[in-house]
Design brief:
Length: about 375
Amino acid sequence: MKYLLRAITREEHLAFVAGQSSVSHLQIPSWGEVKSDWRSASLGWFDERGRLVGAGLVLLRALPKVRRYLAYLPEGPVIDWDSEDLDGWLGPMIAYLRDLGAFTVRMGPPVVARRWDAATVRGAVADPEVRWLREAPPSAENPAARELAERLHGLGWRPVTAEGEDSAAVNQPRYVFQVPFGDRPLREVQAGYSPEWRRNAKKAWRAGVEVVRGGYEDLAAFHRLYAEAAERDGLIPRPLSYFQRMWIALRNEHPDRMRLYFSRFEGEDQAAALMLAVGEHVWHAYGAAPHTRTDVCPDHALQWRMMSDAHEMGATLYDLRGITGSVAGDEQHLALLRHRLGTGGEAVEYLGEWDFPLSKVLHKALDLYIAHRGA
């Protein structure tokens, strides 16, 4: 069947999200307010009985001097990706967005393709013959994801990046690192931390490292740490106004949608991070640890507190966000990966992002524009 697709209200969208166990924070109405340089709209899929059965946040951005849009649904939409009639879901979306003036539709199906447990990733990092995560045998594989990729190809969709590649530009990460809580008690989750990770956390506590929550007025202090870390890593930081806008938009939507944490030692902020939450899914986002106080391990104390709080909030999944598909390369990347491995989590590969070009000429212009920006 073909579903009826139309714009929905913020209230309709939020009611749908509230009925789901996990929806990306990039697929909630408030994220459209965060991305103020994009237009945004909430879309809803309705069945023959008029029930809202799917939803998505679409972001619209025009190419310079062209009144046509890239229509982007990051980590969405939230529909039945197992449906045998995939065109019944995606066809109305393409038609609707074409009428809005889209020249390309880009989406990121929230479908897991493969997982690698911590032991497997450690083994891959230690093996000089393995350079890419995809070269290591997965701990779990989802056959439905490969079938979905084949059906998307058949409908005219094209992957933004090849299998195993890292995403760039506006894309969301294909590979992430997650700690599945499930319904396990907190002590069982913590028992999965590596011995070294637990020792470092205890070292932080013995040294007197304190982890505290901050408010809107503390975002400037967070941003100083974040900007220092970005400069160290050769990245361009987002402005403070971006995080202030995020705080207002997300917390106006739900008071626990966003939290700010600091790790302090002897009165000085050593590390900080933002926590985002939608339903049972919690993300560690925008970590900022510019200092190298390995003697007191402030980041271990920070993560321990944030994971404990996430569990208390009812999370079933703690998401540390993007990693690259590489298990080799520079030591900075490997140090970050080893730190995450200490949580006892797993590397996860999603299906990646997909494009449906509605204008081949303008789609090519988008590729050239992104390449020119160096994004």
